[in-house]
């Protein structure tokens, strides 16, 4: 007689497959909870403990960890010595293992959950069963996803059994499942003990959806979630309207959200992102004014960009937005009338940012060939009370406010980054240039091209000036104050240049490269 082992935390639907196998002569084996579930539905089932002659112990911590079970799963059917040992120890083969695990991921998300409960939802026996069955996939079929059952039933009805290729696919899913499960547990413990960079690391990734393509149409892509934190993120956002998000949409939206984090609790603020760089950003007395000033920073680049605002979207701002084509708009909430106005643009994706925790958690990862670069998120350096004025003159209160604004924006501009700000409005951005002087020239060109007056503006640089030329360029542009990290061996040259031009300069002591 063939045998199938069922051991599931989530049992819905498993009775259909158990009944299907029972009708084909399989003996159904099961653990306590699943045994009762199947028996109540009239399916003939044998409890594991009656097979092993050993009861469940330690409050269910030990159920299936027994040679009769694992021998039946791991024995190779074409190996005579394995078959001899099975007969010698009165062990019968097990051909199907249908299983899912204790819900560790769901448990850690529960409000106020205690460590004791989390520990008890770490599955031991289930993982061992999955790995054993997957290892022996030539002879055993392992099912960890009950949504696979209908197609498996169809294949068995058509061919009488499952092909080796199907069993290999199921084994692959099984190993991926246990890898994800273990990485969830290790990530939880790493956070608990504050171990950011362990010697060995598993990154839990679960597919959210497929994507039409990646950065370009010839690149395949998919969206994965790394950990179900409840902080504000693009993955936790609700898509209220519009087409599915693309790979590039997610990249740009994440960059937009990073900037919104800096201004989450400020006065009305709007930012427009293009290719992950801010092309416009501004404060305003109203949200509409903030948006219009952000758009005025670079109206050409704003076309087809992504808008982020830090307040509830109102109808006045919505009316201003729909006058131009944008890919995405992001806001913490929307007035009903504002939402209806935005929905008149059928291709506009409308994202509602859910939650109230703007912090970023975990680590940031960047794949390189053969490995991964891992670092903390860049979340320091915004405390302007610790800044040092290094020139003879200090910035005025308005200049200081603009410097702080520019510094926040520069943090999110690709290096080498130069940002010009005036009266709470970005008026020029130079991003991603090989020379910092070139970035300053581009920032001036951006401002001049739309008729924004640079004289009286302030400048932020994401890193120090290796030479005084950037300061001299800024002075010619009419910049009156500069914020930069400092730290160059030629800092004094830049300080001297600022003093010569009667400019204020502030050192932050923190660099914000963004590669």
Description of the structure:
- The protein is α/β, with parallel strands linked by helices.
- The chain folds into 3 domains: 3-193, Methylglyoxal synthase-like domain (Rossmann fold, 3-Layer(aba) Sandwich); 234-352, Cytidine Deaminase, domain 2; 387-507, Cytidine Deaminase, domain 2 (3-Layer(aba) Sandwich).
- It has helices at residues 14-22, 32-40, 48-52, 67-74, 80-88, 104-108, 115-120, 125-135, 149-159, 164-193, 247-262, 287-297, 299-302, 315-321, 336-342, 397-410, 436-449, 469-477, 491-500, and strands at residues 3-7, 27-30, 46-47, 96-99, 141-143, 206-211, 221-225, 238-241, 269-274, 277-283, 306-309, 328-331, 349-352, 363-368, 371-376, 388-389, 418-422, 425-430, 458-461, 481-484, 504-507.
- Helix 8 runs antiparallel to helix 10, helix 12 packs parallel to helix 14 and helix 17 packs parallel to helix 18 (469-477).
- The longest helix is centred in the middle third of the chain and has 30 residues, at 164-193.
- It is elongated, with a radius of gyration of 30 Å.
- The model has no long low-confidence stretch (mean pLDDT 92).
So what's the overall shape? elongated
Query: What percentage of amino acids are in beta strands?
Result: 15-25%
Query: Unreliable runs, pLDDT <50, ≥5 residues?
Result: none
Can you name the CATH architecture of the largest domain?
3-Layer(aba) Sandwich
What is the count of structural domains? 3
The CATH topology of the largest domain turns out to be Rossmann fold
CATH class of the largest domain: Alpha Beta
Helix content: 25-40%
* Quaternary state of the chains: single chain
Average of pLDDT: 92
What's the total helix number?
19
Give me the count of strands: 21
